[in-house]
Amino acid sequence: MSQGVGAVDFHGQESEGDAMKATRMSVMADLIRRNGWTRGAELGVWKGDLFGYLLAAFPKLHLIGVDHWRPIGPYTGKNMEAAEAIVRKIVEAHPGRAQILREDTVLASLGIPDGSLDFVFIDASHDTASVCGDIGAWRPRIRPGGALTGHDANWPSVQAALDELLPGWQLLGGNVWIFTCA
Ligand SMILES: C[S@@+](CC[C@H](N)C(=O)[O-])C[C@H]1O[C@@H](n2cnc3c(N)ncnc32)[C@H](O)[C@@H]1O
Fold first, then answer.
1. Stretch among 4-8, 57-61, 81-85, 145-149 having the lowest mean pLDDT
2. For the chain, which end, N or C, has fewer CB atoms within 10 Å of the first or last residue's CB respectively?
3. Interval between CA 24 and ligand 1 midpoint (Å)
4. Residue 182 and residue 180: Cα distance in Å, rounded?
């Protein structure tokens, strides 16, 4: 099993200053552009900020968004129905290449064929057990040479999952992490 970045081109930030300015949008856009990725999934979509941005920026990108939109944990009291409605409008705006799976991220993986994705962006529940669950469930869905990525690599709970399951993972700008799949 190969570890680390392998063939994925991820050198989007040329300086420390660039890395400071990077966001999850700019970093993911740079990865998609450099690697020619056309098939991906975002785990945890919320109100579609990243989902809509990437679909608008990349006309050839097919993107699956997974979210249960339940008002629990950090989303207690938030209007998750409104968030889902925003995302459904994004899907309508990109017919044929945007798909929503309204369910738990691990369960949603069961309907995705192995090796069918270029990348997965993990940004759902951030506790260590959930991140480990998402990594285990979605890693087989990525083709060899594709990448697992995700957000909030600065969270100790996220780092613990990465250190446990993806030794050699790397930190990009905007607190995005990456690991190339064998
Ligand atoms: C940090 S937000 C996602 C932000 C989004 N990725 C972005 O960049 O704009 C996390 C989302 O994950 C969803 N979520 C958390 N745990 C989940 C789970 N186990 N299954 C499905 N969705 C989940 C929440 O409902 C929430 O909308």
1. 4-8
2. N
3. 14
4. 7
The band of 10, judged by pLDDT with boundaries at 50, 70 and 90, is confident
* Pocket probe mutation, ligand 1, options 45, 121, 126, max atoms within 8 Å of Cβ: 45
Residue 2 lies in a domain: no
Cα–Cα distances (Å) from 105 to 29, 58, 69, 150, 168, in that order, read: 23, 24, 11, 14, 24
Is 5 inside any structural domain? no
Domain assignment of residue 10, yes or no: no
Confidence of residue 114 (pLDDT cuts 50, 70, 90): very high
Nearest ligand 1 atom to alpha carbon 152:
1
The residue nearest atom 22 of ligand 1, judged by CA position, is: 67
- What is the domain count for the chain? 1
Q: For ligand 1, what atom is nearest to the CA of residue 107?
A: 20
Q: Is 65 touching ligand 1 by the criterion CB < 6 Å?
A: no
CATH number for position 74: 3.40.50.150
DSSP strand E in 7-157: where? 39-43, 62-66, 98-101, 117-122, 142-150
Q: Whose CA is nearest to atom 25 of ligand 1?
A: 69
Mean pLDDT over 22-31 rounds to 96
